[in-house]
Amino acid sequence: MTALVSCREVSRTYGRGDAATVALRPTVCDVEPGARIAVTGPSGSGKSTLLHLMAGLEDPSGGTVSWPGIGSRSELRPGPLAMIFQGPSLLPPLSVIENVALPRQLAGAPSDEALEEARAALARLELSELADKLPEEISGGQAQRVAVARVLASRPLLILADEPTSQLDRGNGAHVIDVLLEAADAAAAALVIATHDHTIADRFATRWTVADGVVITDRS
Asked: CB under 8 Å to 159, separation ≥6 — which residues?
């Protein structure tokens, strides 16, 4: 099976000399189609760095990241790879529905089709009433759920989610995970989620543990 993303001795260090901080030590890991992986570990352990490298958002300090099942780094977005960030990621000038539809429009979908898919994604997360609001008019928790809807509408092959429930209460957090898992199943997409919540991690077939920049990938 061809991996969607492959990391070979990938490492990441921020800064230089005495000010250098090792965020991720040399790591070997693959994400295969349909994978369900929870990445656990304390804050600052390297979980977000690993996901950012997999998403092609950062350059490794050492080793290589490739996307055999997707293509080149320039082909990752919009479309095949989508990421849910821990912090705010909506574009302020656009309404909620325009934010959700944007990746599909950038991928070449007709505007009407993209908006229809955006409405369906918002409905799945019970956010239809927010469609015409601007990001500044909704709460942080609502914005995070809208970011999840945007990913669902983009039809990715690989979803990377960095603490997607950190701004949500337990009920809404559980609902977001339900929708992510259902959407990944429906699209046969791989899903990798970084979380410190072990009740969420227990719902995934495979668990990777990160501690002090060291990734242990053999837990299933």
From this structure: 82, 83, 84, 151, 180, 183, 184, 189, 190, 191, 192
Long-range pairs, 131-138, Cβ under 8 A, ≥24: 131/95, 131/96, 131/97, 132/95, 132/96, 132/97, 133/95, 133/96, 134/92, 134/93, 134/94, 134/95, 134/96, 135/88, 135/90, 135/91, 135/92, 135/94, 135/96, 135/99, 136/92, 138/96
CATH of the domain at 24: 3.40.50.300
Task: Give tens-digit pLDDT for 153-167.
Answer: 888 999 999 998 887
> Which of 58, 63, 56, 57 lies closest to 4, judged by CA?
56
The predicted-structure confidence for 58-69, as pLDDT tens digits, reads as follows 999 999 999 999
Range of the domain at 24: 5-219
Could you give the number of structural domains in the chain?
1
